[in-house]
Every structure is written in C-alpha cells, then in structure tokens.
Amino acid sequence: MDYSLVDLLALLGAVCLFLYGMKIMSEGLQKTAGSRLRSILAWMTKNRFLARARRPRCRWW
Predict the structure, then answer these.
(1) Which phi and psi angles does 29 have, rounded to 5°?
(2) Which of 5, 18, 26, 44 is 20 to 30 Å from 38 by CA-CA measure?
(3) Would you state the pLDDT for residue 22?
(4) What are the boundaries of each domain within the chain?
C-alpha cells in the first residue's frame, strides 16, 4: 500500500476534527446537565459498594 503525504494529512485532519467535536459536545453536555449530573453521580458513587451494585447490568458481561 502506498500512502502519500496528502493521505497522512487527511488522516490527521480527520482525527483533529473528531477530537474537536468531542470537546464541543463535552462542553455542551456539561453546560446542559452540569450541576444536576454531578449531584446524581456523587449520590450514586458516595459508597464504593453501592456504586458497584448500581452499575447497569449488560447481558454480554
């Protein structure tokens, strides 16, 4: 397989665009659900045993 500099730059650009999108989505989610989400997570994980017990079950695990 022969890859050129253009292919490498296209791959780099795609990865950068993906990471930028993830950053924007993360910031939007934090603004939308910020304090409420933090309080729910704090409540669910305040006890290590209960945090493990409340983990959603997946049929593949």
Answers:
(1) -65, -40
(2) 18
(3) 96
(4) 5-53
